[in-house]
Every structure is written in structure tokens, then in C-alpha cells.
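Can't paste images in this forum, so I'm doing it all in text. The chain is below; anyone willing to post the predicted C-alpha cells underneath?
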Amino acid sequence: MRRRTGRLRTAAAAALFALGATFLAPPPTAAAADGPTGTTDYCQGQCADILPPGANGNATLAEILASKVFGTHPGHSTDQLAPYGALASGYQSLTDDTLTDFFNDASFGVPKDQVAKVTAPRDDVTITRDKKTGVPHIKGTTRYGTEYGAGYAAGQDRLWLMDLFRHIGRGELTSFAGGALANQGLEQQFWPQAPYTEADLQAQVDQIRDTNGARGKQAMEDAQAYVDGINAYREQSKNGRYFPGEYVLTGHVDAITNAGEIAPFKLTDLIALASVVGGLFGNGGGGEVPSALALLSAQQKYGVTKGTEVWESFRERNDPEAAKTLHDGQSFPYAVKPAKAKGTALPDAGSVTSEPLVFDRTGAAGDKKPAQDPVKAPEKYRKLEGMFKDGVLPKGSFDPTQHRGMSNALLVSGKRSASGHPVAVFGPQTGYFAPQLLMLQEIQGPGISARGASFAGVGMYVQLGRGQDYAWSATSAGQDITDTYAVDLCNKDGSPATKDSTSYRYHGACVPMEKLERTNSWKPTIADPTAAGSYRMQVFRTKYGTVTHRATIGGKPVAYTALRSTYRHEADSIIGFQMFNDPSYVRDAATFQKAAQHIGYAFNWFYADSRDIAYYNSGLNPVRNPDVDPALPIKADPKYEWRGYDPKANTTDYTPPAQHPQSVNQDYYISWNNKQAKDYDSAGFGNGSVHRADLLDDRVAALTKEGGVTRAALTRAMSEAAVTDLRGEDVLPQLLRVLNSKPVTDPKLRTAVQQLDSWRKDGAQRRETSAGSHTYTHPDAVRLMDAWWPLMIESAFKPGLGGDLYDALGANLAIDESPSAGHGPTGAHAGSAFQYGWWSYADKDLRAVLGDQVQGPLAVPYCGNGDLAACRDTLLDTLRQASGKTAEQVYPGDDSCKAGDQWCADSIVQRAVGGLTHDAISWQNRPTYQQVVEFPSHR
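Text version of the structure:
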């Protein structure tokens, strides 16, 4: 990668079991001691974690009302939020001894004097809650009891959330939670990504059980025990009237008579839940149609040859300046561009239309602004009326059509640490919700020994966390496991095909598309006053995947389909998670990497124990015809299909494990959803010379060069990156060089340049002057950058690209994703920022204008058409416009913030998925669940 010119701050400088067996007892060592669970804990107090806002995600109707009226919260629903938020201002003085001021002690078990409550839902399992956080520590004497306890604890902590998400996965959100526009939008985004019949879901359960040997059978037995535990709590809480109050507010249970039902959970619900999780965080590829439209626009602007060159330079498939997780030059070719592509299926210009999804609207479903028909609550519950009028999940919370790769990881080998043992700071960035999508738990039982986080509803095993002498985590990888095919349309009766035809050519025959449908209806409730309505969603499925668009190619009608390798395999990764949790399976880096091979979704997996750090990129990477270009639509023809493809089971030949990026004991690893390795082609736009991973890479590289890395030092590096503006650290230096290529004579502009330069020299951070001040150290410079960036990008690039191409490229990669940008892929107040943007394009273009060497340059100069003086004029003109914008214009305000409140506009808000809300915290660009680990010993 290209090393940054921006100044680095002080932090940078200064799963699972052996079948039928109990735990394999590790050999006794003097260094390790038995913890309260009786299981040996080799971390010796050096493992920590955090997951805001709190372990408890359930609230009764009375507790929801008390929260709305008095601002109170049920126990342990908010107690991890303050220490999590405090790190943004407290990291600079962090030491190993003060880590637990900001993180939980993640040791196994609960000391006797810290036990708050013990529940025994069966005689073979206990759930112990600690006083400080209320995290469930599940300990079973039988395998069934252990998993039953895990399900019971999930019901205690996340019953409403799990119910909500199984309905999202099934495309039934409006029928369950109400017809608010945001609910309609959410199910219309999700269901087309993973549309299934009940038989399809059951087939996936059967496939896991029947094709994975003993582990598959055990996995489904574990899943059934987990479901049984959820249902036991569901039934007990309903009968005991301590179930989540949202069920009353959404009309499922009567508050007075207790009549109504909380529907039982079943195994197929877990498949639906897994499809939501995998679709959000473990998918990769797709988007070939908008990519093709950008290519066509470039060819129309510049001609075919030059236009293709321009498009390729913006695509940055294998950019030599991109930050890479494997930074020692390792090459792992995958999804590479062929020298001369065959089978590319570009549409005719102007012919592409999106596949319609919604039909037969009735009532409020037919209104752009649905009518309201409020339901009156009993007097004492009046404050809860309309609680979900804007949707049970705030608009913008999720969009599975966007590449949402998040999460980060920093690992340093023992060769570079102070102790001689590896150090890791890592975790998933899954957004901020109340309750959180993840839940913390410890599971100890026959063949299972782990503590960490799991997605609620699929928490049979810890998915990210620690074992007895190792820890692991993941980041979304996003490599290309989804392709777009162009199928020729036809009619069964032999009549001429049109774009609306519902049959297609498959291996020479005209076959009908399969129509999948979901009809939803709703009526107003106390929580959601949206008037009654209904509609039908419809998706056509082919042997090449589901139809997403229609077009013509050479005048002939086609349908574009999305074929994802993990479709019909939403929960197959359960085998890998089972192995992660099994202390008899994972005993070192090599066995961890082998377990990760069983994860079908696209993730980067990281591992640390007392001896090694390791990395492995998982995913069902299909073996393609080497002549096809996977970045563009492909003609649906047998010779261009995935090798060994079986449409019935959606299986194919997969690239062997040796071809997946992997490593053991590189001096350090970083990942922030960046490029994995040389020649491992990026599935989308945006992996170029400036990426948010540079914020980590520069700091950790400096730390390891100096040596003596500690847990606190690595956490400080992460934390400093988490409050740094990527544009300010890595693009502003070039902008200032252009501006200062001649003296700035205008007094107002000179002041603006000085403010920006002062901010850059001070680290380009978005950080409070002191904890709780709600004022940034350089508020004017931050406001200038937020106002200037979109103006500057448009003025620098749009004149050269032209409006059509500029917009087409913007459809593939948004120009900005600042913390306050409500338009970004993750929405406002989401924490995650600076993943998607035109910072690499600006960096390369400005360096070319300045005469610097640029590897992988843009094919055409843009700012000032390559002339330094003209580029400087563009920057000055846009900076003048930006400096004239008031804080109220830059930060217009929303439901959480008044206009002009810069700190609030950036702040993280736990998006209410239920009846509880929480205070905003200062912006941090860091994992939601995070571990800090350093194992001093090993089995």
C-alpha cells in the first residue's frame, strides 16, 4: 500500500465438540488455574470484552412505560453503554491496568461473591448471572441441557428481537409488527435477497443433518435443544405475564386478559434468522447490473476502448496501492479479470428496468404516505401510543442490497509484543441497536467451552469470542460469491418473447420461472397506527437465481438473475461454529483455520493464542470459467456456468482451501473490510489508495516497528483510528498542497485553510475537548470538511465525467460517508463511517495533478483537467462555498438532534428495536462487540 503522508498520533508512534465426549482435560500447568466453572482458563484475567448497551434486551410492558415516563431502565439493559462510550475520550491515558474501566472482565465463570442470580430451567443446566453485567453463564452437565440453557437464556435476553428477525427473514414483518412505511421497506429489501418457501427452509435443515456426518446430526440436535429452551421461556413468560411488552403494543397479546399468542419457534425459523445475518454481514459480490451501466456510460462518453479503461480505473479491482491484510506480497488469485473476457452480457443502452416486487396493494399500502388510524390505549399506557409509527426499526437501519462489510481487527505477533505473547483487539461492527443484535454469553458443557457474542436466535454456539486458550473474531470479507446471469426470455407457446415473459431458456429448453409469493396484511395497533392494508410480494426464481432486472441485449429480451453460492445454504456454517466452540478440535492456529473452512459466508477470520496469530478467509468461492468476467453480467450458457453447478441443490465446485487468503504469524494483521491480498480481486468499487483500513495499518505498522506492544497500546491505536476523519488524515494533505501551491490571498479563505491545516496537524480527529463537553477540539475545521467534501468532489469530477457517468459511478460508490451523513449506506448515527467514498479517487487525481508518482492512476485527469492552477481554482471556489455554509445547513437536524448540533449529528444512537431507548454517545468508528485479549499460557 501507499504509506500515508498524514501525521500519526501517539498511539502509533509510542464450533466444537468431540461427539459423545466430555471436555478433554488439558494437561495441568503451573501457569493456569481452574476458574469458577471448573474449566481451565488460560487467559488469567487478560481477556476483556464489551457489548453495549447491556445484556438484558427484554422489557415488560410496565418497564417500557416506566422508561418512557421516568427514564428508568430494567437491570443490565444499559450498564455497558457508559464504559463503551467513555473510551472515545479516555483512550489516551489507557494502561493495561485500566482496561477494565472500559471493558468487562471476560474470564470464564462467575466468582461466588459476584453471583447475582442462578436459574435452573432443567436439572442438567444452570444459568448464572453476574452482578456487574448480568451476562448469562450457561453450564450444563449434558449436551442437550447445555443447549437448552442457551436457548432459555436467549429467550430471557432477546425474545422480542428474535421474534422480530425471524419475521424479517420470512418476509412477514408488516404482518407481525405493523404497516409503517419503514417496515414495508425493510421486508421489501430483505425478502427478495433470500426468498424461500417453508419446504425450502426445511430442506436446509435436512441437508445440514443428513450431509455433514455426525457433526451435522449433532448440530441439528443442538439447534432443536436451543429452540426447546427458547420455547420454554416463551411459554413461561407468557403464562407468568413477564413477557416483553412489545407483544401487547403490537396487538399479539391482550394486556388485561393475557389472551393471544407468542408463536412457538421452530428449526426453520433459525434458517430464516441465519439468512438475515448472513445477508447483512457475510455476503459478497452482486451489483453487476449497476456496474455494467457505469461501463456503458463510460463507453458512451469516451468510446469503447478508452471508456473501458476509465471504468477499470474507477473499479480498482486489484489496486497496487490498496491496504491489504496480507502485506508481505502473498498472492491469492481469485475472480480475476481475464485477458479477453467471453460471455459478457451488457444490456442495450436504456433498456434496463428493475424487477417489480409489490403487487395488489390495498388500503394504506396504496398510499405514499399511509393513512393513520390510531388505536387508543388504556389511560395509563397513553404515552406508548404510536411508539412504532415510524417502523419497528428506524428507516435506514438495514439495507441488504448495500455492501455492509464492517468490523475491524488488529493483531500483533508475540515477536513484537512486550510479553512475547500475541495481542489482539478485534470485533464485529454490527450497528447499534437496543437491544443489540448480538448477545453475550458463556457456554460450558460437554464438547463446548466458550464465551463471547452470538447473533440472537442462532446462538447455539458462541460465534465470536474466546475458548479456553484461544480467541477469535471476524470481519466481513465481501469477496465475490454472487454472480449475475442474463437468461434469454421465451414463451412456452412459442410466441415472441417480451421483457415481461415468465419463461426462459435453460440448456436449450424453454422452462417456466418459479413464482415465489408472500402476501402480508396488517391492521393498526397501539404501537403502529398505520391504517389497515395489504400487498403481495412476488419474486421469480430460475435455475440461475432470482430475477432482479430485465433488459434487452441486441434487441432480444433477457432477465438478469442473481446467483449466490450461499443461497439454500443459509445455516451450513453452523458446522464451523460448532468446531470453534469445541476445545478438543481447536487446539492451535492450524486447527482453527481448518474449522474456518466450514464457514460458507465471506468472512475474514482472525485467531490468537499464547503462541500464534493467524488469519483465514472463508467463503463458498465458486469455480468459474476463467474466461468470464465476474465483475459484469454473464450470458446464461452451459459453458459460462460455475463448474460442477447443480441448480437443484445450488451447489458447485468451490475453490480449495489452499487458494483462500491465509497466514500464520505475519508480524501483524489488520482488517477493516479492506482488500485481503494481492490478486484477490475486490468484489465492488472502493478498494484503492485510501481506505479506512489505512487508519489501522499505519498505526499498527508503527507500533510493531517500535516493538513492545501491549494490550493498552494496541487498544489506543484502535481508539485513535476510531475518532479520526479519514479524509482529514489521508486526503487533506494533498488538498492543502494544491491550495498552498500559491499564497492564498483572500482573508476568509486563508483562515479556512489555516483551520484545516491546524486540524490536520492535530490528528484530524472528531473528538471532544473533554469527556461530556459535546464540542469538538476543531469544530470549524470539521464543519468545513463536512461541507467541502461533496462540493469539491462534484466540482472536481463531474465536469470531466459528465453528469450521466458521474451519477452512474455514484450508484456504485457513494461519494462520502461521514459520521453525520444520513445518506450513507449505514444511515445516520450508525458509528461506522468512511468505508464508502471517493477518497481514493480524489487522492490519486490530486497526486497526479501535483506530479507525484501514482500506481494504478485514474485513466483521465479530472481536477482542473490535470492543470494545477485550474485545480486550485476549483478547490478554492468550493472551499469558499463551504465556508459560507452555517452549522445549521451542514447539520440540518433530525429526530435525535437539533439543527446545527455537530456533536449530536455525529453521535451514536442505539436504534430502538423495542420499547427502550438510550442516551446518545460520542462518535466512535469501532466494533460493536469488541475483545481485548492476550493469553499468557496454553494447553
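The chain has 25 helices and 32 strands. The radius of gyration is 27 Å.
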